[in-house]
Amino acid sequence: MKKNPCCCCCNTKQMNSFSLSRILMEKKIILPFLFLSVLVCAADASFNNVSTISFDEGYVPLFGDFNLHRASDGNSVRLLLDRYTGSGFISSSLYNHGLFSAKIKLPSDYTAGVVVAFYTSNGDVFEKTHDELDFEFLGNIDGKPWRFQTNVYGNGSTNRGREERYNLWFDPTRDFHRYSILWTSKHIIFYVDDVPIREVVRNEEMGGDYPAKPMALYATIWDASTWATSGGKYKVDYKYAPFVSEFKDLVLHGCAVDPIQQVSAPGCSEKEADLESANYAVITPESRTAMSNFRQKYMYYSYCYDTLRYSVPPPECVIVPEEKRRFKDTGRLKFSGGHTHHRRSKRRSRVSKIAAQNQAEEI
Ligand SMILES: *[C@@H]1O[C@H](CO)[C@@H](O)[C@H](O)[C@H]1NC(C)=O
Ligand SMILES: *[C@@H]1O[C@H](CO)[C@@H](O)[C@H](O)[C@H]1NC(C)=O
User: Fold this and answer.
1) DSSP letter at 287?
2) What is the per-residue pLDDT across 161-182, written as a single tens digit (0 to 9) for each?
């Protein structure tokens, strides 16, 4: 299905709704950029051979068109945030399962309040029952490491956040790194470069919470200051504007379908089979070790260990006892760089903004 780009960028109400999930900086965590040789060695070149497409082949501007700068070769695009607007793009089609991937370089210097999101969603089509898979980069303060989170929603499960938050083992503002979301009927894998950082295996008990309707790819940069708590302590400082995030080597593998009729184009079953047999869909023992190392070193929040929020962890959670021991019942690390206090953070979502406001969580 072709999306009309105009319907996406005409009114501010819709513009606000693009920021599907807005998370605030809540706690300073200082971790040196530890060089984890295990992570790097496990790089099995899963994405070396993926075919990329140009911006115009697969995407259209979503909002803030003046702040979307295509490179002349068409293979990369910059999204800017300045004091007037953020910007974003969206895939022209929705895909029933797919690999959604890009090399991304995040804005450098002081980026408090700036959020860069790379995610799949069908919220424009299914307002009440949307599905979503997120990478959200949460800005940084004073040159401290960027933090990011992943999340999974299915069939409008916005009151059941499935956030995990992490630090990175490199400075994402210095070079391009590949961020990928693989979504098949069997599992979801989030990748940073060649490291699978999170896998959600489909589980019958998840029911509709497992994304099952065609989704588009979105990339956005926006000002999250207005969601700031603590009296706007983490507002965007436009002295440092424009904030520039760059995207290149874009990948869209999957079958484009009509989201309403869910009619798939010819050849979809082959594409699905290709997706499931691709090397990035198979987690080798080496990659699994890399994933476990990443999660042990860099994950600092998991909804699976947040027993205050979920007294019974959601069904897809794999509780790793030695991992669980490191987390408090808030789902946060027991020891995290010597900071002991929490800051409140609010999560809001377009689909159930009010519900989310009422249950502003403390993560
Ligand atoms: C890379 O992809 C091409 C085309 O998709 C394929 O023919 C080739 O065998 C692949 N090479 C490797 C090393 O996987
Ligand atoms: C998705 O949600 C709708 C509305 O609540 C419900 O009717 C439908 O059965 C759900 N689908 C699945 C697969 O759970």
Assistant:
1) H
2) 999 999 999 999 999 999 999 9
Residue 114 near residue 242 (C-beta atoms within 8 A): no
Q: Is 361 a catalytic residue?
A: no
Task: Report the nearest-CA residue for atom 12 of ligand 2.
Answer: 208
Ligand 2 neighbours (beta carbon < 6 A): 129, 155-156, 207-208
- Closest ligand 2 atom to 209 CA: 14
Q: Which two tokens stand for residue 342?
A: 């929490």
pLDDT digits (tens, 9 = 90+) for 52-86: 999 999 999 999 999 999 999 999 999 999 999 99
Which residue among the candidates 136, 163, 164, 316 is catalytic per the annotation?
136
For 264, the token pair is: 């798939």
Closest ligand to residue 279's CA: 1
Distance 51 CA to ligand 1 centre (A): 9
For residues 299 and 292, the answer to whether their CB atoms sit within 8 Å is no
**What backbone phi and psi angles, to 5 degrees, belong to 16?**
-60, -35
Please tell me the residue having the least CA distance from ligand 2 atom 11: 208
CA R_g for the chain: 19
Atom of ligand 2 nearest to the CA of 212: 13
Contact (CB, 8 A) for 124 and 18: no
CA distance 353 to 156: 12
Consecutive H or E run containing 178: strand 177-183
What residues contact residue 272 under an 8 Å CB cut-off, 6+ apart? 97, 184, 185, 255
1, burial (CB in 10 Å: exposed 0-12, middle 13-18, buried 19+): middle
Counting every residue written for the chain, the total comes to 363
